[in-house]
């Protein structure tokens, strides 16, 4: 009780938790969830058609690795159609937030959009890895190289991997 009568439940909750600093909390995701973005996958062809397809194949063969699951936005197409999400960007942003690691294989127009979406989110840049083909970044005056990839490399030199 206080001067104005009984204490409301919400007031008790606010008093109890209002002084806590969210910067002191850490969420541990176990097992790890990798949000994998990139080119076509599961094409059913003998030779994987994209780097993302190769990575998914690797994780499927090595299920007992440290990675608990590889998640692709495409796995949720039916969910997205019938959900409360108004757009795909918001949906992908939420998947990225709950993922332990985000790997973007720069090999499709969609992966370029995902790079732009995630590289500017300060909460995601510490768990973002971009794998880019050398021919796309060879010309070091390209927008991709001078913009998003350079921004990532400046924060962490190991966040961008280039392959031939």
Question: What proportion of the residues form beta strands (DSSP E)?
Answer: 15-25%
CATH second-level architecture: 3-Layer(aba) Sandwich
State the distance separating the first and last CA atoms.
70 Å
Q: Which word captures the global form?
A: globular
Poorly predicted ranges: none
For the biggest β-sheet, the strand order reads: 2-1-3-4-5
Number of structurally distinct domains:
1
Structural class: alpha/beta
Q: Quickly count the helices.
A: 7
SSE ordering: HEHEHHEHEHHE
Total number of β-strand segments? 5
Oligomer: single chain
Helix amount: 25-40%
Structural write-up:
With 164 residues, the chain is α/β, with parallel strands linked by helices. The protein has one domain (26-163): Rossmann fold. It contains seven helices and five strands, in the order αβαβααβαβααβ. It has a five-stranded parallel sheet, with helices on both faces. The chain is globular and about 75 Å long. The model has no long low-confidence stretch (mean pLDDT 80).
């Amino acid at each position: 009780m206080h001067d104005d009568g009984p204490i409301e439940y919400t007031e008790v909750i606010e008093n109890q938790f209002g002084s806590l600093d969210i910067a002191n909390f850490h969420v541990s995701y176990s097992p790890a969830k990798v949000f994998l973005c990139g080119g076509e996958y599961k094409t059913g062809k003998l030779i994987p058609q994209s780097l993302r397809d190769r990575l998914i194949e690797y994780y499927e063969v090595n299920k007992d690795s440290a990675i608990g699951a590889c998640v692709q936005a495409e796995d949720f197409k039916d969910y997205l159609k019938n959900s409360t999400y108004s757009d795909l960007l918001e949906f992908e942003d939420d998947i990225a937030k709950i993922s332990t690691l985000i790997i973007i294989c720069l090999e499709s127009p969609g992966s370029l959009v995902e790079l732009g979406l995630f590289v500017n989110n300060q909460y995601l840049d510490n768990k973002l890895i971009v794998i880019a083909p050398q021919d796309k970044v060879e010309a070091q005056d390209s927008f991709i190289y001078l913009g998003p990839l350079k921004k990532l490399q400046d924060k962490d030199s190991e966040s961008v991997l280039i392959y031939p």
